[in-house]
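In this supplementary section we document a worked example of the pipeline. Step one takes a protein sequence of length 513 as its only input; no multiple sequence alignment statistics are reported here. Step two produces a three-dimensional model, which step three serialises into structure tokens for compact storage. The input and output of this example are shown verbatim.
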Amino acid sequence: MNVRSAAVALAVLALAACADDPTAAGHDADRVAVELKGPPHVRVLLREHEAAPRCDPAKPWHERVRCMFSSGDVTSCAWLEVDSPALAAAPPLGPTFKDCGAVRERGVRSRLPAPGPAGGYRVDVAPEGDRIAVKVGSAAMLFYVLDGATVGFISTPWPVSWVAVPTLEAALPRLYSLTDASSARTLASWAIRTGGDPLLVSVLAGLDGNMLDDWQSLYAQLSSDDARRQAREALWKKVQEPDPNYELLSAFIDVDPALHPPDFHAMLRRAALEAVAEDTQWATLEPLLEGLAARDDPLAGTLACRVYGYFVVLSLADPDGSSSPQIEPTFRDGPLALLTRTRTACPWVKVALEADPCARSLRCGPDGGLVEPDTGPAEAFSSGDDDGEGGGSLPLCTRAVAEGVLAPPTDAGLGPEALDYPGPLLLAAAYRQGVVSAELLQRNARRTYRFELPDQTPAREERGQESPCSRPDEVRDALCRLPLSTTTFEWYACRAHIDDKAKVVRVEALKSQ
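The serialised model returned by step three reads:
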């Protein structure tokens, strides 16, 4: 076999191998990027993944062979290790690039950013061995080491001035706020072991307002009344800052009242008023108002009425929602549910009800009960009778049924959720405020009247056509929307007579002139 034939055979074998395993050229390789033998013994390891080259199968075979033997793209992943008993006891790191990507930023192995275009890492260790700086790019990551594992990090300039870098004790409050749950437990144990109550109080004073659960856990570990007093006072200062921390105030509502500031109720009132003035989202405002409602403060219902009124105005100005953003049901119904439970008089309830007094959402099922929330009256109760598909004859929900959506959870299970029943919720508010008028009840009652229909004409029957007079569901909504003074009306070749006393609608076919 000559040289050319051998090359061709090798190329064919290589192409076949590539076809069988398109990732055959991909591989992972580890190397030590930088090492300090300490103490402590510190290493930065770099794992590089070389992907298989992407060779275009449409190219000539000799170009494909050249591509196959070229280098693919290289991706790198790096981590920091401290040679310690903790590292020796930890499970080994898997061999794949995916394993490297799963390394966390804290622990016996600490994930590092990729070296970047400049490449390379540099490492410096504090004289005490408790802080490690790793230069990446123009700055450095400063890792704090405790019991052989990193428990947090901050950014610092490079080169590092260890005199200017905060010690673990000084950085503890900040580290605790930024670290994960496992490292937080390690830091708390170290604080109790080395600094006792004073150090633990400094941690508590530095916690963000959204970490109240952690705060309570650490607070329970304080050993003296004086330390607990200091911790409470530090937390109260956060609540009393000029800009209200709505999340912190909301979190306070459910904790032990002994932890509340002396003027906590007044704080809630001020925060709720400011939140409404700032057009704050309902998700943030709701817990503040619920906290006021739990204290029987009428301001809760008053502010809920204001918020509900805003959305009523929006819906009246843009009834089909074509020009204004879609209103989230929670933002519409949350304030309504709250003002209804607190029995707050709110004029917007009457405005909303009378804007569409014949709305399908106000109707209950044939048995008078609530319609399933994932369906509507039309879908849930179309039965093929004179109700048709519109659910027109379904009754208006009664007061008892409508107020049932406000029922609290019971031992037998959760009660109905008010937000799942916007129509009954509006009715419940209207019933409680006495704004469900006799006229509205009568107009809705007309939808449920029995229909007396004319016989089908022979001519239409022969042509297979249905008379419009034989389809009452098409006019049931009209019965609700007509003035009560209207007792007779016509459409096409039909005339209807409304008998409110007998609760009957008599339909006749008009004779052609």
